[in-house]
Design a protein that fits this description.
This protein is α+β, with helices and mostly antiparallel strands and 451 residues long. It has ten helices and eight strands. Helix 5 runs antiparallel to helix 6 and helix 8 (276-297) packs antiparallel against helix 9 (342-408).
């Protein structure tokens, strides 16, 4: 991914986050499907934002690494004014020679070679001529960029899984509440009819009491489910980084995800490359390969060149001084000869670290295959259980409806209705749990396959 593409990704993330705030009233509830909730989380969660920052940082590391091989130009300037000019003692032979050339004059044994004002300004150009580790280090910086890009994919997958795991329980509670509302409505209707029968002398007070008790239990259960839904919704909002005080509306239901998966998903070959964790492991091994190569390059000599130009001014004041130019070129060769086997140990440690990463990838591959195998078994079991519970639910409904008809016609007792009612409620609960287990097993299978 080029630097331009990285900024496009970051801009898309920012835009997608901004769309939620611009396209809707900030106080209006968001209406989200599972996929929309995942997209929202990708645009708002801290983990994804930090992963994007890591990609941008990797781009800067490439620029930083590339800069070490480019010529660098620096300027310098310095000024010194001597309050007391330093002097040096002249050699005795030099003093004697001066006295011989100037007979009769007194010659001081001390002399100064500096003037009061000293100003120096210059430019220095430094350039790498040869460094075996430079291009390998630049490759390593680019490989690190690829590594953090793979990390982004892994992070997005993790956030998606978190959103799904938080979204589905809310749907389960909603399904429970929907069934509970129907049960309460049916029970209220039956209670009304029973009271009418009681007034007509065809029912007992015990029949009314049983129905009222059942109705009270359902209402208590309804209140508990409402509290559970609030808690589950708060968990989902937290995962999405969604405002806690803003309403959130979910548009899915569990039945939408209960369809049968394809035969290839249940028995086809496992493509490990579909899992972003494998891509991350491969990028890690590539980094370790380059780490070994960089450390091996440390045995090679390095050569740098430099060009320096300076102007120096000296004078007791700024009117009678002089400028003295200086310029030179230089080469600096550094040849490693012996370092006590330190570099060799560093290379060996890098190779050992590479072996560890390879071993970790092998463990990851084994764990993915096991995850797929177990997910397929869990899905098949969940499918069989749901099919069985679906049949049980149809049967429990027929029994409940039959007992109600018999009760209304006076050939059945309220106890039979109560027993059929409790059996229906239990079967409904079992069916919903089986449906939830199937949906979660289906998502788990998709995760394991890398879909």
């Amino acid at each position: 991914m080029t630097k331009r593409l990285v900024w496009i990704v970051l801009l898309q993330t920012a835009v997608s986050a901004g769309l939620w705030s611009q396209s809707e009233n900030p106080d209006a509830p968001a209406v989200l499907t599972i996929d929309e909730a995942v997209e929202y989380a990708w645009g708002h969660t801290t983990a994804i934002k930090n992963a994007g920052i890591n990609i941008a940082d990797a781009e800067q590391q490439i620029i930083e690494r590339r800069a070490t091989g480019l010529p660098s130009l620096s300027g310098s300037a310095s000024y010194n004014r001597y309050l007391e000019i330093p002097v040096q003692v002249l050699p005795e032979q030099f003093v004697q020679l001066i006295q011989a050339l100037n007979p009769g004059e007194e010659v001081s044994p001390e002399a100064s070679f500096l003037l009061k004002n000293n100003f120096t300004a210059g430019l220095a150009l430094d350039a790498m001529i040869f460094d075996g580790s430079y291009f390998t280090a630049l490759k390593a910086a680019k490989a690190y960029r690829k590594y953090v890009q793979e990390e982004m994919l892994v992070e997005k997958r993790a956030v998606r899984n978190q959103v799904i795991d938080a979204y589905l329980p809310v749907l389960l509670v909603d399904e429970n509440l929907e069934i509970l509302d129907r049960n309460i409505e049916n029970l209220e209707k039956l209670l009304f009819e029973t009271r009418e029968l009681y007034e007509a002398g065809f029912a007992e007070q015990l029949d009314i009491d049983r129905l009222e008790l059942s109705l009270s239990n359902l209402e208590i259960e309804q209140e508990n489910l409402e509290q559970q839904r609030t808690s589950a919704m708060n968990v989902l909002k937290f995962v999405l980084n969604y405002p806690m005080d803003r309403e959130l509306v979910l548009t899915e239901d569990l039945e939408n995800y209960a369809e049968t998966v394809s035969g290839d998903a249940l028995s086809g070959p496992v493509n490990l490359d579909r899992r972003p964790e494998i891509g991350l492991a491969n990028a890690g091994i590539e980094l370790q390969d380059l780490n070994v190569e960089v450390n091996k390059q440390a045995f090679l000599p390095t050569l740098r060149g430099s060009v320096v130009y300076q102007q120096q001014y000296q004078g007791d004041n700024f009117s009678d001084g002089f400028w003295a130019p200086t310029s030179f070129v230089g080469l600096n060769l550094n040849v490693p000869i012996f370092d006590g086997f330190g570099k060799k140990a560093t290379v060996q440690r890098a190779r050992l670290e590479r072996e560890k990463v390879i071993n970790q990838r092998q463990d990851l591959q084994r764990s993915i295959r096991m995850e797929v195998h177990n997910a397929r078994i869990e899905y098949l079991n969940a499918r069989r259980t749901l099919d069985g519970q679906s049949k049980n639910l149809d049967l429990a409904r027929r029994i409940y409806e039959t007992t109600q008809i018999k009760y209304r016609e006076g050939v059945g007792s309220s106890l039979e209705v109560n027993q059929a009612e409790q059996s229906l409620y239990q079967t409904q609960s079992n069916y919903l749990q089986s449906l939830y287990n199937l949906v979660t097993a289906r998502f788990a299978l998709n995760r394991a396959l890398g879909n």
